[in-house]
Description:
This protein is mainly α. It contains eight helices and two strands, in the order H-H-H-H-E-H-H-H-E-H.
Amino acid sequence: xxxxxxxxxxxxxxxxxDYETLTDxxxxxxxxxLIRGYDSPTDYFVETLARGLGRIAAIxxxxxxxxxxxxxxxxxxxxxxxxxxxxxxxxxxMIGLRGAARYYSEFYERAFALECHAxxxxxxxxxxDNAIVMVPFCRSPEEADRVAEVMAR
Length: 153
């Protein structure tokens, strides 16, 4: 999933969610070019991610394919278009806000919902029920439960 986000989508999901209220004109202009042809910035993210994941799932269908949810470190998120507007510098991004902890954080939960919508589209609308989700950097069973709650919403 990370390769699709960084190489194809190229934009920080929060920047896409906040597109209408962005005050950085250069970021907004660059996002406008990326999302051209889509109904909304979030449709761009969800459709592009689902289509990319679908290409992978199709190769293996009907055999299972494990889709690892995004696990960028904060400095990697900052490199995405609009990322510097959202990401703070962490002393050690390797153990910072990443993976499971990011998904249920108040800061990022609404962006994680976009990944969940892409998975729903992939498995439901596109029919790739062979796609199995892996939650990276999950530190405890309780954290897994929190991620499952967010995914259910």
